[in-house]
Amino acid sequence: MMSPEEQLDILMKGTARVLGPEELLERLKTGRPLRVKLGVDPTAPDIHLGHTVALEKLRQYQSLGHQAVLVIGDFTATIGDPSGRSVTRPPLTRGEVLANAETYTEQAFKILDREKTEVVCNGDWFRRMTYEDVLKLDSRVTMQQILAREDFRARVSGGQEVRLHEIQYPVMQGWDSVMVRADVELGGTDQLFNILVGRDLQREEGQPPQIAMTLPLLEGLDGARKMSKSYGNYVGVSEPAGIMFSKVMSASDELMDRYYVVLLGEERDASLHPMEAKKRLAWKIAARYHSPESADAARMDWELRFSKRDLAAADLPELSIASLPEGANALAVVSYALSAVFGVKKSHGALRRENFAPGAIQLDGERLTDPLAMPSWRAGSVLRLSRKHAVRLTD
Known about the structure:
By secondary structure, the chain is of the alpha/beta class. It is built from 16 helices and 11 strands.
C-alpha cells in the first residue's frame, strides 16, 4: 500500500488546480476508499482525447484503490452545460441522450475498470423531484453567485441571452455531488464554479465538502483551440488505430510534449530524436485504445507512407470519386478530402500557401501546384493532400 503522501504526489500530477491539497491528504489518511465523482453529459456519441484527460485521472484513483463514480447526466444533458459557452446550447431529447450515453460509456470503459466503476444517472433523482423540491434547492444559491460566473456575466454585459434553465445547471451539478456523497470531484478548469456549488450544498447537508480537482483543457491538433469535433482538431477514441497514429503525428513538437504529460502522465525521453519521440507518443495512444499489435501496424503503415514515401503500396483511407463536389477544381477537392476523411478544416487561402505552394499536393506522385487545375480523377489513383495525409480514390 502506498502512503497517503505518495498517493497525493501521484494524484496531483497533471492537475490544473486543486482545492485543496491539504484536505485531500487528510481524506487519504483516513484509509478508506474515497468516492471520486466525474460527471459526463453525453451530448454526442463519440469521445475524443480531450474527454479522456478526466477519465485517465479517474482511472488513476481506481488504481490506488478508490471508488470511481461516473455520473451520466441523462437529465442535465437535455439542458446542456453552459460552462464556457457564449450562446445557449441546442436542447437534446432524452432519447438522443440515452443513445449517446450507450456508446459514450463503452468508449469510457476503454480507460476505466468497468467492474470497479459505479455508474449512476442523475435523472434517477431529478425526475422524482416536485416543483416544490426544485424551489427549495434553488433557494440555497443566490443570483449574485450565479452572475459571478465569467461566462454568464460576459453574456449579460454583451447583450446575449442567458436562459433561466441554464442558471439551474450549476445547482443541479452540485446536487449530484450530494446524492453520490462525493469526496472528490473531477472536471475541466471550466467546471470549478459548478464544483464549488457542490461543496456548498454538501456542507449544508452535513456532508464533508468534496475536494475540487480541475484538469487542463486539452489543446487540439492545431495547438490553438481546445480539442473539439466542431473545430476539426480532434483525435477520436473510436477512430481506427491508423487514423489515430497519423493525427498524433501531425501535432507540433511543443504539443507533443504537452500530450505526453496530460495524456500519458509522463515526460518525453529527451534523449530521443523528436521524430522518434512523436512516433512513440502516437504508438502509445493507439495501443491504449486498440492494441499493441494495431499500434505496430499503424506505425509501419505511417512509415511506409510518409517516411519511405511508398504511397502506392500503403493501406490508405479511401475516397469515392462519386462523392467529390461536381465540377470541383483541385483546391476544392483537396479541401473536401481533408475535411471528409481526416476532419482537418483549412481555409482555401491556407491550403494555397501551406499545401499547394510547397508542392505537398500530389496525384500519383506528380505535383499539383495549380489550385484551379481540373485533373482527371481515376479510381486507384493516390492523392496526397499534405505531408501527413493521403487517400486512395475509388469509384
